[in-house]
Predict the structure of SulP family sulfate permease.
Amino acid sequence: MSRPALLASLSGGRVPPLRVLRTEVLAGLVVALALIPEAIAFSIIAGVDPKVGLYASFTMAVVIAFCGGRPAMISAATGAVALVVAPLAREHGVEYLFAAVVLGGAIQVLLAVTGFARLMRFLPRSVMVGFVNALAILIFTSQLPHLSGVPWQVYALAAVALAVIVGLPRLTRAVPAPLVAIVLLTAFTLTAGVAVPTVGDQGELPDVLPVLGVPAVPVTAETLAIIAPYALGIALVGLIESLMTAKLVDDITDSHSDKTRESWGQGVANVVTGFFGGMGGCAMIGQTMINVKSGARTRVSTFLAGSFLLVLVVVLGELVALIPMAALVAVMIMVAVSTFDWHSVRPSVLRRMPKSETTVMVSTVAVTVGTHNLAYGVGVGVLVAMVLFARRVAHLVEVTSVLDPDGGTKVYRVSGQLFFASSNDLVFSFDYADDPEQVVIDLSDAHIWDASTVAALDAITTKYAARGVEVTVTGMNRDSRVRHERLAGHLTGGN
């Protein structure tokens, strides 16, 4: 593929202008620099050699640049996936890890084909806000070890870097401020001879390119039984984090992305990563925010981030190793600050916000931060939202009654959404002992959602029938009528 064709395929079918291309190149370089210590740190979490995480970051970024559905989003080795695969690498070795990554990618492709991405519409906004805030907290806390037990010069350098990142954009945006901070601090520490922790202190950088190969594991049912649970964890955690990050970027850039394509793109990237000796990964909100905040909007920056990463660690590894960690810590701290939804925790907003929404957000943050697992946090957040929603809606059902002037018929008007939580008490809303011989239940302002409601209506008619009272149910909309006709009289063993 020629260079113009490559650029066109990565930027929506046409070669981007030079100004846009410059922004994409610089953003990709900044992201690549920020990826190096993160990939090394995640490798340590997973219990594998640093090159396993670095290779994963390279292959994930390059492949997703072509296959992904969200332009400008960065995928690489992540802490969420590292936590999933750590027990497998520790107990069975790195080759089993590679096999699990390949299988996890295949599962992601399968989930994409079956419409997993469409389930994202069921994520409440409060869960999204909790997800963003939790990740901001995790990004910030992940930098704290680099600020503990270090020379005082580290704090001074980090403060200078923060000042550059905050202040430079007010003067010019021609060059990304994080890149300027990294270059300035590296040049200063080298010329002044300041001894502070550097990228090289985080682990040995690889000096060879990744090699394509098949994981060296027995192709047996026993192997499948070992790697399958971890592969499923990789698939679910990776997709959830990637799709939520894609939605976040959609909101920031006021654009829409293909979530189904992103889902199978993540799967393809993980399959390739496993065959190239990587630990697997997914979208990274921290690096994605660096990329987007630097002005990147196309796949060019994603592709270059992965490419620069490999060049930096393989060709320029000795130079990259000299970058002070204080500079990269400052970059990530600013990412955390800009990622956090400060509006969501303003006292004025919290006073206006329903307590149920705040509870969902706080539960999502607490579980995610407590477990360092996005899947757990989102799962608990959605569960809490469902329970609180059902509880709230259950109290919105109202039953009123009117007795006809002749006293021969009583009309009960039911309004609200009838489902298991709201219909359980419906049976107690009628005066069975004193009602006349004709009872009408008007459902014009109600909707039947499930079998529990049909069973409740059956119980009501049965109680009336035992007293010789005839019950007529009227006013059902089409969906409610179809559900009632299909299930009425068939929900108990005696029928």
Observations:
- The longest strand covers residues 438-448.
- Residues 398-487 form a domain with the Transcription Regulator spoIIAA fold (CATH 3.30.750.24).
- The longest helix spans residues 221-253.
